[in-house]
Amino acid sequence: LFKSLEILQNINSNDSNIGYLYNSIGEAQQKKGDIKQALQSYEKALTIFQQQSNCNEQTLAWCYNNLGTIYEDKNEYNKARNYLNKALNIKLKYLPPKHPCLGNTYNNLGNIYYYFHEYDQALDMYQLSYEIFNKSIAPGHPSIARILMNIGIVYEAKQDFNEAKINYEKASFIRTKILSSTHPDRISTQNDLIRLSLKF
């Protein structure tokens, strides 16, 4: 990626392909936990795309979503919510109502509302995400388990332990089928169920 970026920069520093590369580099950096560098890459990508007279709005949505998740990683939740809402507004214009990308953005927004302790709004976002994934991806997909865990976490925060248990158990059922017994997500789900059982 970096070699391709160097070649393109020597041709045209404002080429939209450079924006795509910066965005992809940012995603790789974010996965490695290099938050500062990832943010810089995403910001460079956004600047390049915004300078394009024929900029594709869906490309901007990609940038906004990435910036939203990086600010979530930085615990800057107001900025995260702002960028995620920008991404969502664009996606709603162009994508079918049950597109998985919408499910991802609703999930990300649910995370932000959860961090703000706005649990009802978080549940609304997670439920929208769950409904979309149920209709757009295969049953038993890891993303469905992730959403069920998020829903359970919110119910636990609301001290509705019965609903929390129901969702944790659904997530555990999926993860038990698709993950090894030593996978961190499977172990985490089992630990959550054990911890929750002590609250009854």
Automatic annotation (TrEMBL):
Keywords: Repeat, TPR repeat. TPR repeats lie at residues 19-52, 61-94, 103-136. It comes from the Eukaryota. This is Kinesin light chain. The lineage of its organism: Eukaryota, Metazoa, Spiralia, Gnathifera, Rotifera.
